């Protein structure tokens, strides 16, 4: 791979951890899709000396492209543009057309403010004039908010993007469409990328299969394979040059042969997307204890979810299970609230309460206390019930702290739901 890039994430709030960095990972994926090798991601505060130090470090590493995020606002601590200009040996000049475009954006935004306390337009415009100061010769990327992006020619070329992801992401595509950026990455290698997802297989099992594949798949070394365990699912991302597509096809055949039951997506689709498709035309209800409504929230995320999510009940106390879901108190007394019979009764209650044709119930012990030798913290019982009487019931011991158990529980529930609906 002949083209390399580096990313500089700026912002004291990111450096100190008050704000999580979402831009670095997102930009890394976009660079890899383009066939550009990512050399480094660095994070620094809003100090010109530190920003310039990161730029010089990446230049010394021989990168062809540097992407920065953050530091483009109108306040005194937004210093990325002037620092990049100094690094590239360019003067900072006022772009009058850009200033006029920013002014119109501000005028539109200020229309929501009325009354005697409304800010003065000219005062706000003057404060934002700083955002129209750009390195001489830079290509301007029109603002998504009020901050424009920039592509600054040089060795390396520098792409300057705003910090908010909602502004950075659409601007990235505009940046890569410019002639300057295209020239900087002209020598990149074109790659194909495939994503396969599994559930219910330990990482050790996948590792063993990949060792086997290394022996039996010709040109295996031409496949760049990255694996990641997330929410109890295994994500396998494979990148390769187009003429190595045959090697990937043979790898896929090995994975299917060994782990057909674990593979749920070969095209990168998430379990949430797959479940959403299967729920089309149905009405689902949830009954949750220990996950605090997180499953209902997850089901409500996909586009069009309002068409199938009827509602949910969060029932931690036994009284709530009895009163809201119609669970028999004697059943709880005999088996305990965390049990498969109670999970089945909760699912049946959710079906009735919301007149639904599909229901999912979760009852468990997320911690930190409350476990017993027979039912330790992390014990969770699940039930997926369909209106025709079919049920899938499972008890699983999940590792981790309260947040881990809750998150993994919703993932298990989604996969049980997928399995039940796929059987139709």
Briefly characterize the structure:
The protein is α/β, with parallel strands linked by helices. It is built from 16 helices and 17 strands.
List strands and helices in order, with pairings.
Layout: E1 4-10, H1 12-15, H2 23-34, E2 37-44, H3 48-60, E3 65-69, H4 80-87, E4 92-94, H5 96-110, H6 121-128, E5 133-135, E6 139-141, E7 149-152, E8 157-161, H7 165-176, H8 179-184, E9 192-199, H9 203-216, E10 224-230, E11 233-240, H10 245-259, E12 263-265, H11 271-278, E13 284-288, H12 294-299, E14 309-314, H13 318-325, H14 329-335, H15 340-354, E15 358-364, E16 379-386, E17 391-397, H16 402-422
Parallel strand pairs: 1-2, 1-3, 3-8, 13-14, 13-15
Antiparallel strand pairs: 4-5, 6-7, 7-8, 9-11, 9-12, 10-11, 15-16, 16-17
């Amino acid at each position: 791979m002949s083209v390399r890039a580096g990313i500089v994430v700026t912002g004291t709030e990111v450096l100190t951890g008050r704000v999580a960095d979402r831009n670095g990972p997102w930009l890394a994926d976009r660079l890899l899709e383009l066939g550009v090798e990512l050399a480094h991601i660095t994070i620094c505060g809003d100090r010109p000396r530190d920003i310039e130090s990161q730029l010089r470090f990446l230049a010394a590493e021989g990168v062809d492209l540097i992407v920065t995020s953050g530091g483009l606002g109108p306040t005194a601590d937004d210093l990325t543009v002037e620092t990049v200009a100094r690094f590239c040996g360019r003067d900072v000049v006022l772009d009058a057309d850009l200033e006029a475009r920013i002014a119109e954006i501000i005028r539109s935004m200020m229309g929501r403010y009325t009354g005697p306390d409304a800010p003065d337009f000219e005062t706000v415009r003057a404060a934002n004039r700083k955002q129209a100061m750009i390195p001489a010769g830079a290509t301007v990327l029109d603002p998504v908010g009020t901050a424009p992006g920039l592509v600054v020619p040089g060795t390396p070329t520098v792409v300057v993007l705003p910090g908010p992801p909602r502004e950075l992401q659409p601007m990235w595509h505009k940046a890569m469409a410019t002639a300057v950026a295209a020239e900087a990455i002209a020598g990149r290698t074109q790659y194909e990328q495939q994503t396969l997802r599994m559930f219910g297989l330990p990482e050790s099992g996948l590792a063993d299969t990949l060792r086997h594949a290394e022996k039996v798949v010709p040109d295996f070394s031409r496949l760049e394979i990255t694996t990641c365990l997330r929410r109890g699912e295994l994500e396998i991302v494979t990148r390769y040059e187009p003429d190595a597509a045959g090697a990937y096809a043979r790898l896929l055949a090995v994975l299917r042969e060994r782990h057909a039951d674990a593979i749920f997506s070969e095209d990168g689709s998430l379990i949430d997307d797959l479940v959403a498709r299967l729920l089309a035309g149905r009405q689902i209800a949830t009954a949750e204890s220990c996950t605090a409504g997180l499953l209902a929230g997850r089901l409500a995320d996909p586009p069009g979810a309002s068409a199938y999510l009827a509602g949910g009940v969060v029932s931690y106390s036994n009284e709530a299970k009895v009163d809201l879901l119609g669970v028999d108190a004697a059943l709880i007394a005999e088996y305990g609230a965390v049990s498969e019979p109670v999970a089945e009764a909760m699912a049946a209650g959710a079906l009735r309460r919301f007149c639904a044709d599909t229901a999912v119930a979760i009852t468990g012990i997320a911690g930190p206390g409350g476990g017993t030798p027979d039912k330790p913290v992390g014990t969770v019982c699940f039930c997926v019930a369909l209106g025709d009487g079919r049920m899938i019931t499972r008890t699983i011991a999940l590792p981790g702290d309260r947040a881990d158990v809750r998150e993994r529980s919703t993932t298990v529930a989604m996969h049980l739901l997928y399995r039940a609906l796929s059987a139709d």
